[in-house]
Amino acid sequence: MPLIRLLVSVAGEIEGDAGDVVRVTGSQAAAWADGERAELVRSTAAETPEGGQAVPERAPARTRTRKPTTRKG
User: Fold this and answer.
1) pTM flag (> 0.90)
2) Model pLDDT, residue 1
3) From CA 21, how far away is CA 38, in angstroms rounded?
């Protein structure tokens, strides 16, 4: 289901304050996301790995740091 961000406070079929992100049906998103009342945030669901759990991203392992050299002089 699509997500829209409300640009104005509304009550009724869709309820929320300005800035709220609301999950609505496709037809509601098409009607409301006109740039004055709401804007489209996401039109499709986020992708997830099939049959498995999401694996967090990790930074690459740090390389060995050089030892400070003593200055001759």
Assistant:
1) no
2) 82
3) 9
